[in-house]
Amino acid sequence: MTLKIHQDHSRFKQIVRGKIKANLRKYVQKGEMLGKKGKDAISIPIPFIDIPRFKYGHKEQGGVGQGEGEVGQQLGPGAVEPGDGHQAGQGEGDHALEVDVTLEELAQILGEELQLPRIERRQNERIVTQKVKYTGVNTTGPESLRHFKRTFKQALKRQIATGTYDPKMPVIIPTREDRRYRSYKLQELPETNAVIIYMMDVSGSMGDEQKEIVRVESFWLDTWLKHQYKGLESRYIIHDAVAREVDRDTFFHTRESGGTMISSAYKLCRDIIQADYPKSAWNIYPFHFSDGDNWSADDTRQCIDMLRNDILPQVNQFAYGQVESPYGSGQFIKDLREAVGDTTNVALSEIADKDAIYASIKDFLGKGR
Amino acid sequence: MPKSLTPRLAALRDEIHGYAKEFGLDFFDTVFEMVSYDEMNMVAAYGGFPTRYPHWRWGMEYEQLAKGYEYGLSKIYELVINNDPCYAYLMESNPEVDQKLVMAHVYGHCDFFKNNFSFRHTNRRMIDDMANHATRVRRWVDKIGVEKVEDFIDRTLSLENLIDQHAPHIRRNPDPQRAEEESKSNERVEGFKVNREYMRGFINPSEFMDSQRKRAEDEKQQRKRFPERPQRDVLYFLLEHAPLEPWEVDILSILRDEAYYFAPQGQTKIMNEGWASYWHSTIMTRRALRDDEIIDYADHHSGTMGVRPGAINPYKLGIELWRDIEDRWNKGKFGKEWDECDDLRARQAWDKKLGAGREKIFEVRKHYNDITFIDTFLTAEFAQQQKLFVYGFNDKRNSWEILDREFRKVKNKLLTSLTNFGQPIIEVVDGNFENRSELLLAHKHDGQDLKGDYARETLRNLQSLWRRPVNIITRYDGKGSLLRYDGQHHSEKKVEL
Fold this sequence. Notes:
Shape of chain A: flat
Oligomer: heterodimer
Mean pLDDT of chain A: 81
Shape of chain B: globular
Strand order of the largest sheet of chain B: 6-7-8-9-10
Radius of gyration of chain B: 28 Å
Order of helices and strands of chain A: HHEEHEEHEHEEHEEHHEHEHEH
Low-confidence stretches of chain B: none
Distance between the termini of chain B: 57 Å
Low-confidence stretches of chain A: 83-95
Strand content of chain B: 5-15%
Number of helices of chain B: 21
Largest sheet of chain B: 5 strands, mixed
Helix content of chain A: 25-40%
Number of strands of chain B: 10
Structural class of chain A: alpha/beta
Strand content of chain A: 15-25%
Structural class of chain B: alpha+beta
Strand order of the largest sheet of chain A: 9-8-7-10-11-12
Helix content of chain B: 40-55%
Radius of gyration of chain A: 29 Å
Number of helices of chain A: 11
């Protein structure tokens, strides 16, 4: 019985997964519309998994109810059972089925669909943590780990074997030899640490829509990298003419006016890496988003120098996403392309609008670095 | 795996069994099995059976039940299968008082299964047959591949409600007289009368005779409809006439069997749940309940009886109707004299001390289904007492609201919603529509339009079985409409009805 339903259950999950895959592009664009459920799971509406039938629209149908109330009185939300009249409550109300998906699973689906390679870890999994795993039952151990059921089972076995068990007086007394304890092993878990350093241009030319694109995109970058690395940290830098480090919330909701000095952000990024993330222990991912409108050619030159000399040698991959703004798209990506476009650990992506997020994720993560 | 009862529970079962017999319930042997909540969810996902054919839908059902239980939204108390012997499940973690309640409830259901006429034709070996169905489907899966089989099941399930609810009780064979008339009409083509034999070639030239013969033949073809009369059992029609592979025929017939097996449960939900509730309540309050269990019992009983304004709770409506019938027949509140009495005070004080209530309800449980039950016994007084109303959707306010409390309307709405399961009545009217082997269904429109997107999806599935274009005549906004799917495109055109 157990086995059979699990087959059907996993088949159902497989179908749901297929539906998610088929609609992934849509989900990716919307990103934040996914109702967030707890920390690690989100719920996604899946279109049309129920079986279509010839039936009445429930709204045309109406029905009979029971209870107090005047004619014309509204019935509260949830009072009316959707479904096929008599067979009410079968959950055939709407087309969409809400399913819970863990971010982990979503990342897998994303990876399969975009054919993202697994990230090559630069660090050889040096950091190790230990985890306790209960593996079996032993005859010795601390009392706090005593396995009561197994102990009594053992005692019952012994009593039956020695003929001291009386079914009319089913008293079981475990002796010292009957006692059983849970046993555990210490497992060594290799752990790789990674840090994402997000940088965003918040100067006047970056509008709400641009920031929305950055937010959605970074949600998916986070999700994928979290899937790849257990201990993932994130740092956030915003900049206009000057750069400062902020928390996640501020990062997505700040709007400044004024000019753009990209070099200020790269400077801060470099400092953060030097201070907190030695290359030997960390996988480092700077992601920078801007509309590409830098203050001056001179500043751009500074940026490129810094990238070449300080940042690129330290990081797994440096990624730059240029978001198209109402003022057009700037020069910066072209400059980067010329200067460092051929470098293996640089990923450049132009993001015209929300539709482009899907492809852009591939630009960023497709190198598997 | 299900376990047999603990000695303590076995003793309780014997006790409850005794009370059930004492009250005159008459049931098949009933086997109780203990299951964990997870196993309960599994069995429930399979519709009460330990084994069903493989399909993702059970997995979905299971997921929903398991989640509902985890979040504390729902809990299945009782599960019983119409089979001989009946099988019923008890949840391990339930307290004793709940187990007693469930047992008493189950004996009510088993009595109903055994005695109500709707179940007379059901398969009492369904447990075995379900397992056989599962084996057959699995065999096809091995042979044909899981994708194809599952896909076919998906499409067939879409048509599952297109059976003839009353088929087990009615013989619908073509009558012999009609066949005879048909052969009579097979007369020869004679042409104009010829007096002089040598004139024949001029009066009835052979081309003319040929065309006449052809016309007669065509007319005969036209007359001989296929099917000869509208057929409600669309699944049967497909089995007989759709160009299906042997494995498809097998699976379609399995699904049709199961649909027929479950049909009576749908037709008697209010009666059956009401009957079981009536008996659990009677047995518990009159016999089985210990003093210290009263609060818990009352809590759980009232939980089952709770009503939401926008839904009929079959347990509640059922038990109240049974009690009302018992009370009326105890006091003689029926017949000509009662009907004609319009003195309210006299009606209220009416008591002829007939005491025929118990006998009456036992009789009713034999011969009625939900429709006839409601039609016969739901009185204006009852509807008022139970505060029944009709509700509907108000587009302007975008919400549901109470439309009416008038007895006639309430009763009519209730009966409509029970007719054919509350599902539209759909028949095959032509298997050779427009002489092009297309399938034509007709929806007997009763004031409610079909849900359009569902109808189109269903047509698509139907087409994949029929393999030629399929059509359905229905009505939208009062106008006749022919929906059609030809395998690639949906179309809709206005038709005169």
